[in-house]
Amino acid sequence: MPQARAYDNLAEWFELLNDDCDYPHWSQYFIGGLRALGAGKKGLEVGCGSGAFCRALTRAGYTMTGMDISSAMLSVAARRAREEGLSVRFLQADAAKLPAGEKFDFLLSPNDCYNYVQQSALLPAFRRAAALLPRGGVFWLDVSSPYKLRNKVANNILADDRDDIAYFSFNRLREDRVETDVTLFVRQESGDFRRLDERHVQYIHEEEDVVGALRAAGFSVRVEGKLGEPKEGSDRLNFICRKA
Question: How far apart are the C-alpha atoms of 228 and 237, rounded to whole Å?
Fold first, then answer.
C-alpha cells in the first residue's frame, strides 16, 4: 500500500491523538513566557499543524499567522479557527525555507517542527527565521530531545485505540534520525474501518548543535526542558532565543 506524506492522513486526528499533552497548559507556558520576554503581539507559528497554539494565542490577544508545509494540516487549522470565530491567517511554507519579507515580533515553533529539518539545514533555516525578526525579536522553538527519540521512540511500537480511530507507529533508529511508519484505521459512516498509511522522518538534534546553529544565525539562546522543567532527561528541549 503506498504511503502518504507526513500528516496527510493524521491532520484531522492529530489534536485528538495528542490530547494527553494538555494543549491549554502548554499554551499558557508559551503565553506567560512571551509576556515575560516582552515579545510584542504579532507572531508567526512555524509548523503550526492544525493550529491549536495559533488559536490559543489569538484568544489571548495576539495577532497570529500560522505556517506549515502540510496542506492537509492547514485546511484543518483554517476550518477550526473559523469554527471558533477566530481571525488567523494561514500560509504554506517549509520551515527550512521560510519566505523573506514580512516582519514579526516573535516566531514560535512548538511540538518538534525542527526535528523534520536535517542537521545540515538548521543554520540556513535559522538565518531565514532571523530575517523575519527585528533586533530584539524572539524566536522560541523546541525539539524532541535525543533522549526521547533514542530511548522512548526508536525501535518501539506506539499505539492508541479510540472509538473511531486506531493509531500505530512503527519506529526505527537510524544513525541520525528516527524513521516512522504510521498506520491509522479510521471508522467510516458504514461502520467499516479504512486503513491509511504515512511516513515520517525525524532527525535527532543534539543540544549543542542546535545552540551552535542558533548563535551562528545571530541569536542569544537559553535552553530549558519541557514546560520549563530541567533539561536533563527531559523529553523536550526549548530554545528561547533573542535576535542580537
Answer: 9
